[in-house]
Write a structure and sequence with these properties.
The protein is mainly beta and 264 residues long. It is built from three helices and 20 strands. Helix content is 10%, strand content 40%. The strands form seven sheets. It has a four-stranded antiparallel β-sheet with strand order 16-15-18-19, with no helix packed on it. A three-stranded mixed β-sheet has the order 1-3-2, with no helix packed on it.
């Protein structure tokens, strides 16, 4: 309009790529000053910044995603590290969704996984600990049974400390209580005090437990030798012909391999 008002008619508009806003004049063929109105004037006009289709970047490493964007002309690419179970340095979100037309001058933010904090699992049951890890996306879980006074299936130790950053590739080893270590002991039970006169059926049963196999006892040899296994102190019933004749406590923690018991 300015040139037309001054009488210039030979005006050529040439679109050019430019970072300037669209339709803005970025260059003119003649400098300001006195000039013949018949001169051909060439005006270079910005087509606006280059526009590209935003690609899918999630799942790629930050360096891979940045190179893809740089190759398209996006130079302002910054990471935002966030807690995520995805592999460390993996892009988990992008500020411009894929397939969107966007100017290459636009600043692009990529949310990048820094891993997530390892939870505290000790003291929980194995089932509780597995659910917590599975809910996070951790599936590589190994169990290591250890003897302990803690209840069976209690997590005693975890291979990765609480609050350590982990991702879905982590292998977690859980040391889990399998109960106290049992001890083998031989019981030598002397039944001579019962004055047996005929063969009878002997049974050693842990109090509150199911019946145990019976053993025939000859009155000429009224001594029974039986191997048992347990821990701490266990209370047994000595039964003759299914009748309790004595209740005894056996200490599996006394360090002795045999215990002698007289009945009654």
């Amino acid at each position: 309009d300015i040139l037309n008002d001054l009488g210039f008619k030979n005006i050529i508009v040439e679109p050019v790529e430019s970072d300037a806003p669209k339709d803005q004049i970025v260059n003119q063929s003649e400098e300001a000053g006195m000039i013949d109105v018949n001169t051909v004037i060439i005006l270079e006009v910005s087509m606006g910044p280059k526009v590209e289709i935003m690609p899918e970047l999630t799942g790629k490493t930050f360096e891979e995603a940045k190179k893809i964007l740089n190759d398209l002309g996006f130079m302002d690419v910054e990471p935002e590290y966030v807690e995520s179970i995805k592999l460390k340095d993996t892009v988990v979100d992008q500020s411009v969704v894929k397939d969107t037309e966007v100017e290459v001058l636009t600043a692009i933010k990529l949310k990048v996984s820094k891993g997530c904090a390892m939870p505290e699992l000790t003291g929980k049951t194995l089932e509780e600990a597995k659910k917590i890890l599975n809910d996070l996306g951790i599936t590589n879980i190994k169990e290591e049974p250890v003897y302990s006074d803690q209840p069976i299936n209690t997590v005693l130790e975890q291979s990765i400390e609480k609050d350590t950053l982990i991702d879905e590739s982590a292998e977690i080893v859980l040391k889990v209580s399998c109960g106290p270590q049992s001890v083998k002991k031989t019981l030598i039970i002397d039944l001579s005090g019962l004055g047996l006169t005929e063969e009878c059926e002997f049974e050693l049963r842990e109090v509150g437990d199911m019946p145990a196999p019976s053993i025939p006892v000859n009155p000429e040899n009224p001594v029974v030798q039986i191997d048992v296994e347990g821990y701490d102190v266990v209370t047994y019933e000595i039964r003759i012909n299914d009748k309790v004749v004595k209740t005894v406590e056996v200490n599996f923690g006394d360090g002795q391999s045999t215990t002698e018991i007289k009945v009654p």
